[in-house]
From TrEMBL:
Keyword ATP-binding in annotation: no
Residue span(s) of domain Isopropylmalate dehydrogenase-like: 1-174
Protein name, UniProt field: Dehydrogenase, isocitrate/isopropylmalate family
Cited PROSITE patterns: IDH_IMDH (PS00470)
GO BP: isocitrate metabolic process; tricarboxylic acid cycle
Keywords of this entry: Tricarboxylic acid cycle
Entry-linked Pfam families: Iso_dh
């Protein structure tokens, strides 16, 4: 599932808003244009309370969710909870000139600081997302595969997902799998 949300931190009370003096945008007009230009894309709209309930009860019905910032924040936090928590999901902020890669929720995890108990998965996935964005797919795949082997094959899990592993142990395992992959393919870091 992909959740796309407006990321300028502003909320709009109606369907229309003035982005700059004299220029009014209408979500209804944009929707009509999109429906006419892309008839093969099925579009449904929902109010956020129903979308939240539907996401919890039948998440498989959603492929891509597009929404304003506040609703996107709520929905992305619900989605993170459905897959195991904020420590598992990465997020991207893509602009015209810059991109930021981070955890999928803005949960800072300050209560875990210095305890070696935070789940590093979201940050590791964010690093792979960044490498893909930069066109370094081989590097991204190496990280993703090493994370997969750590979580699934080695079953090394932090407390938030039912394990006893420390943050440092998960990171060490990922690094060991990366080193193994590099050695196996005689690949050197440059």
């Amino acid at each position: 599932m992909i959740i796309i949300r407006e990321n300028t931190e502003g909320e709009y009370s109606g369907l229309e808003h003035e982005t700059t003096p004299g220029i009014v945008e209408s979500l209804k007009v944009c929707q009509e244009i999109a429906e006419n230009e892309y008839p093969e894309i099925k579009f449904d709209s929902m109010i956020v309370d129903n979308a939240s309930m539907q996401l919890v009860s039948r998440p498989q019905q959603f492929d891509i969710m597009l929404m304003p910032n506040l609703y996107g924040n709520i929905i992305s936090n619900i989605a993170c909870g459905l897959v195991g928590g904020p420590g598992l999901v990465s997020g991207m902020n893509i602009g015209n000139e810059y991109a930021v890669f981070e955890t999928g929720t803005r949960n800072t995890g300050t209560s875990l600081a210095g305890k070696d108990a935070a789940n590093p998965t979201a940050f590791i996935r964010a690093s792979a997302d960044m490498l893909r964005y930069l066109g370094l797919n081989h590097h991204a795949n190496m990280i993703s595969d090493s994370l997969y082997r750590t979580l699934v094959e080695k079953r090394l899990h932090t407390p938030d997902i039912g394990g006893t592993a420390k943050t440092s142990e998960v990171v060490k395992s990922v690094l060991e799998f990366i080193a193994e992959e590099m050695e196996e393919h005689k690949w050197r870091a440059r």
